[in-house]
Design brief:
Layout lengths: L18 E7 L2 E9 L5 E6 L11 E4 L10
Antiparallel strand pairs: 1-2, 2-3, 3-4
Length: about 70
C-alpha cells in the first residue's frame, strides 16, 4: 500500500490549505479528485497510478468558494 500526501511539493502541486473533500473517479480507480478549503478554492485531479513526491495534479480548476463535497 502507498500513502499519498497531497501537500507534498512546491507551488502549484499542493493545496494551499486543508483538503475538505475527496472522491475516487468511479470509472478509473487511478484518478483521485480533491477539493480545497478556505483560501485555496481549487479542485485537483490526481493520477495515482505512478504518483511520487514530484508529481503534480493532472488538472487544476480554480473556483470562487470552498469545496465542501465532490460527487461524480
Amino acid at each position: 500500500k502507498k500513502t499519498f500526501d497531497l501537500k507534498v511539493g512546491q507551488g502549484k502541486t499542493a493545496h494551499k490549505k486543508a483538503v475538505k473533500s475527496l472522491t475516487w473517479a468511479p470509472w478509473n480507480p487511478h484518478l483521485l479528485v480533491t477539493g480545497g478549503s478556505t483560501s485555496d478554492h481549487t479542485m485537483r485531479i490526481w493520477s495515482i497510478s505512478n504518483f511520487d513526491t514530484t508529481s503534480g495534479p493532472v488538472h487544476t480548476l480554480s473556483l470562487s468558494s470552498d469545496i465542501s463535497s465532490l460527487h461524480f
